[in-house]
Amino acid sequence: MEKRNYRDDNARRRPFRQEKSEKIEMIFGLRPILEALHAGKVLERIFLQKGQRNSITQDITELAHQAKVPVATVPVEKLDTLTRKNHQGAVAFLSAITYMPLDNIVADIYEKGKTPLLLILDRITDVRNFGSIARNAECMGVDAIVIPNRGAAQINGDALKTSAGALNIIPVCRETNLKDTITFLQQSGMQIVACTEKAEQNLTEKIDFTGPTAILMGSEEDGISPEYLKKADVRVKIPMAGQIGSLNVSVASGIVLFEVLRQRLAANQ
């Protein structure tokens, strides 16, 4: 399917947080990465050399876990492809955005008297898809995007550019365990609506999106993880009339979110 999205480059945007350069900074070396974590720098992810274990790598791993920063142990060849400099077996990337705490976001939405609309993305790994989804979400009134700690697209310059500034506006929450996150949202009064082609019910068939809702979208390759599908309150599919049986996930997210917006606008008339 075609992945290009049509743009309105003159669209006005409200500021949410300060826009950063599209060039994502790299940190290399054990001590600099440890100091960055101690200083509270927001890191996108950390790569540590496989087989390397000492007190500093242990401290990095522990602090990264506390900060919900994914850490991958990789062969030295992987690190050599990231930088030609003396990396000492450790490379990290500074995040292009500041991740927000989900519990604070949910509490703030309810305190303002709003009806929450969240978007949960399960293993969306293509950065341009992610950027397009973020743009859809911001345009359709999504309050926050939730992504997993591991298996998600790196939010880099390409994602920022494709989002047309949306990633500088809409909060993104990075969660360690999406299963627990879904439970938390359900306990907070939200229905979890899973969008999957495996569903029997069409998107437009008696699904009420006017209440607190979190939309769950799955990966480009194999959709939503079975354990998350089981926890969903509702499963829906997008009705299609053509011969191709699936949509690009960024296109699908736009269709689902438009139906949510349509219902909510109609309810407020």
Biggest sheet: strands side by side, in what order? 7-6-5-9-8-10
Name the helicity range. Answer: 25-40%
Number of strands: 10
Q: What is the molecular shape?
A: elongated
Measured between the Cα atoms of the first and last residue, the distance is 36 Å
Based on the coordinates given, report the CATH architecture of the largest domain.
3-Layer(aba) Sandwich
CATH topology of the largest domain: Alpha/beta knot
Main sheet?
Answer: 6 strands, parallel
Please specify the SSE layout and strand pairing.
Layout: E1 26-28, H1 30-38, E2 43-49, H2 55-66, E3 71-74, H3 76-82, E4 90-94, H4 102-111, E5 117-121, H5 127-139, E6 144-148, H6 157-162, E7 172-175, H7 178-187, E8 191-195, E9 213-217, H8 226-231, E10 234-236, H9 249-267
Helix pairs in contact: 1-2, 5-9
Can you give a write-up of this model?
GO terms for molecular function: RNA binding; RNA methyltransferase activity. Keywords: Methyltransferase, Transferase. The protein is α/β, with parallel strands linked by helices. It folds into 2 domains: 26-94, Ribosomal protein L30/S12 (60s Ribosomal Protein L30, Chain: A, 2-Layer Sandwich); 102-267, Alpha/beta knot (3-Layer(aba) Sandwich), CATH 3.40.1280.10. The chain contains 9 helices and 10 strands. The chain has a 6-stranded parallel β-sheet with strand order 7-6-5-9-8-10, with helices on both faces. Strands 1-4-2-3 form a 4-stranded mixed β-sheet. Helix 5 links the parallel strand 5 and strand 6 (144-148). Helix 1 (30-38) packs parallel to helix 2 (55-66) and helix 5 runs parallel beside helix 9 (249-267). The longest helix is centred in the last third of the chain and has 19 residues, at 249-267. The chain is elongated and about 60 Å long. Residues 1-23 have low confidence and may be disordered.
